[in-house]
Known about the structure:
By secondary structure, the protein is mainly α.
Amino acid sequence: xxxxxxxxxxxxxxxxxxxxxxxxxxxxxxxxxxxxxxxxxxxxxxxxxxxxxxxxxxxxxxxxxxxxxxxxxxxxxxxxxxxxxxxxxxxxxxxxxxxxxxxxxxxxxxxxxxxxxxxxxxxxxxxxxxxxxxxxxxxxxxxxxxxxxxxxxxxxxxxxxxxxxxxxxxxxxxxxxxxxxxxxxxxxxxxxxxxxxxxx
Length: 200
């Protein structure tokens, strides 16, 4: 497994500065871009393309907190993070709210497809606006929670100690952060999808 942190000259830690990571990506991209091998053999061109593809994959992984944490955990434990079964306790309330609004939106969209009368379609407009406002409010809550989770990553102790309890506790905290980001990322996508459908 390729260590994406090492590829960027970074130590393995849960928080990376996005602007610094982007600057490193741009600099490395310029160095190894396949266009620089235009006079080379087909084999050398393919190697350059493979390196560039790997660098791109590394950047996409490290720039997203959820993917970065999954990669970090896999590097440190040799295993992918465990499957997410339940939302972390502090997210249960928002989990229920999002589930409710998504179900209501899906039902509304299905009902809207059956309405052909222009008069009835006008009546549906108000309900669509109300659902849109609720979804946007939940999106703001998800963004706030994502920002809070990112701040927590910045403060995360990345010092390593040989103490087994400390290493075990650190791994559990990283897995909890991974689960939090997994849910927040998924919810954001689900809410955005409903907004798009309501706008159609």
